[in-house]
From TrEMBL:
Protein name in UniProt: Lipopolysaccharide assembly protein A domain-containing protein
Matches recorded under InterPro entries: LapA_dom
Species: Roseisalinus antarcticus
Domain Lipopolysaccharide assembly protein A: 50-98
Signal peptide: none
Record field: transmembrane: 46-72
Source species, domain of life: Bacteria
Taxonomic lineage: Bacteria, Pseudomonadati, Pseudomonadota, Alphaproteobacteria, Rhodobacterales
Keyword annotations from UniProtKB, A to Z: Cell membrane, Coiled coil, Membrane, Transmembrane, Transmembrane helix
Amino acid sequence: MRYIRYAFWAIVAICLITVSFANRGMVELRLLPEALAGAVPGFGWLGAPVSVPLFFAILIGVAVGLVIGLIWEWIRELKQRSEAARNRRAAKSLEAEVQRLKAEKHEGKDDVLKLLEQTG
């Protein structure tokens, strides 16, 4: 199984390297369009262009998408995780109660002997 995982990541790495070499041209990126950045005073720096290779823009876009997706999933699964934690605490509490009852039952005489003593 470990070798399959290594092979998968090697294929992913080869694909990323191939895409990177195929898209080495420079592109300009801006956070805001020029008109919008110029219309809001103090935020003109958001419209300043940054020149980066195209593969860098692609990989950063994929990485940002993955991070947003992971955060979205983490928030979406919050209810299930809290319920699971609550269930674990309840199970632990019940297990402790069972252990206490077992110890309590076996610390004295048997129940049959206790009944015989009470009636006799």
